[in-house]
UniProtKB/TrEMBL annotation:
It is a single-pass membrane protein. Belongs to the PC-esterase family. TBL subfamily. Its main location: membrane. It is found in: Membrane. This is Trichome birefringence-like N-terminal domain-containing protein. One of its GO terms (molecular function) is O-acetyltransferase activity. It comes from the Eukaryota. GO terms for cellular component: Golgi apparatus; membrane. Residues 32-84 form the Trichome birefringence-like N-terminal domain. Keywords: Membrane, Signal, Signal-anchor, Transmembrane, Transmembrane helix. InterPro entries: TBL, TBL_C, TBL_N.
Length: 349
């Protein structure tokens, strides 16, 4: 019932979020082309880089080093229906960001995209010195030659989780103390969803604090929407969007239980893009609803549909856990996430 009502409300509002700036309907486009509508085509010029020259790629994303033999998943390029997606020009990208800071804020999917971008930039100029360090929950990757900084701030829920004196962990849906970490950045890319699905031992809270109410749990889409609304209020009240450009990464689809994969409900053994996808991502509808209600300009980097076809792009058994921990959530590098950064680059102008 929830998903049906939410879908109806979006349809009745008569707007198209795909490739759009949700708030005022300005196109996220190049020459009137919606970059998010298209298909995957085989391209012998791909991948954009060889992952072996990026020693900082985390083990969980380095599928070739972890023993993956098939390589067709590296060869697919996203082709918008009505135009061509500009090829990545790392030098121009660095010039656009000269003297600026770009920060990814979110979970390990944000880490995936941040590592993709830093590898794309390093591979284009491998002799350029880079400095990589971590301070608390923030990883910082700088290129002194270009005076650019690319940061990754780990905050899977965007809102706060605090530990009480008795050791209880409390998810505080109306509290967001981390804004000081990101509100002065020049470019922000937010992400949150993956960790909202965790239950049992992987659930990082014991109680939920919602204004004056405390409870053990609630439907995860409900909690997700409440947290997004808290984040949206902080952005609306504290971020100067004349200085800071804000993106929200669309929901990254996993393929843990995908009926579109014939003969399997997971990504293991999939070596080609899917021919079709089915199903509606309710969490994406929630995200779109919240973004649409904001006063400030926040761009949806709508990677959900295009990534849904790429069950072949996950680490599967070639992640950090091998056969013991099949990974159909994250993405191999090089791979699908590089396309997310191509889209980001194009939309930065």
């Amino acid at each position: 019932m929830f998903s049906l009502l939410l879908l109806l409300s979006i349809l009745l509002s008569n707007y198209n979020v795909y490739g759009k700036l949700i708030n005022d309907f300005n196109q996220l486009e190049i020459n009137s082309c919606d970059l998010f509508k298209g298909n995957w085509v085989y391209d012998d010029d791909y991948p954009l880089y060889n992952s072996s020259i990026c020693p900082f790629i985390e083990k969980q994303f380095d599928c070739l080093k972890n023993g993956r033999v098939d390589k067709d998943y590296l060869k697919y390029r996203w082709q918008p229906k009505e135009c061509n997606l500009p090829r990545f020009d790392a030098t121009e990208f660095q010039k656009k960001l000269k003297g600026k800071q770009m920060m990814f804020v979110g979970d390990s999917i944000s880490l995936n995209q941040w590592q993709s971008l830093t590898c794309m930039l390093h591979a284009a100029d491998p002799q350029a010195k880079y400095i990589s360090k971590r301070i608390g929950g923030t990883s910082i990757f700088t290129f002194p030659k270009y005076n650019t900084s690319y940061l990754m701030y780990r905050n899977a829920f965007l809102v706060d989780i605090k530990t009480e004196n008795n050791g209880a962990r409390v998810l505080e849906l109306d509290s967001l103390s981390s804004a000081a970490q990101w509100k002065e950045m020049d470019v922000l890319i937010f992400d949150s969803w993956h960790w909202w699905l965790h239950t049992g031992r992987k659930q990082p809270w014991d109680f939920v604090q919602d204004v004056n109410s405390t409870y053990k749990d609630a439907p995860r889409l409900t909690l997700y929407e409440k947290a997004l609304n808290t984040w949206a209020k902080r952005v609306d009240s504290e971020v100067d969007t004349t200085k800071t450009k804000i993106f929200f990464q669309g929901i990254s689809p996993d393929h843990d239980n995908n009926p579109g994969i014939s003969g399997s409900n997971r990504c293991q053994g999939v070596t080609q893009p899917l021919k079709s996808t089915i199903g509606v991502h309710e969490e994406e509808l929630v995200l779109e609803k919240v973004l649409k209600g904001m006063n400030k300009s926040v761009y949806l980097l709508n990677i959900t549909n295009l990534s849904q076809y790429r069950a072949d792009g996950h680490p599967s058994v070639f992640g950090h856990g091998g056969h013991r921990d099949l990974d159909c959530t994250h993405w191999c590098l090089a791979g699908v996430v590089d396309t997310w950064n191509l889209l980001l680059s194009a939309l930065l102008g």
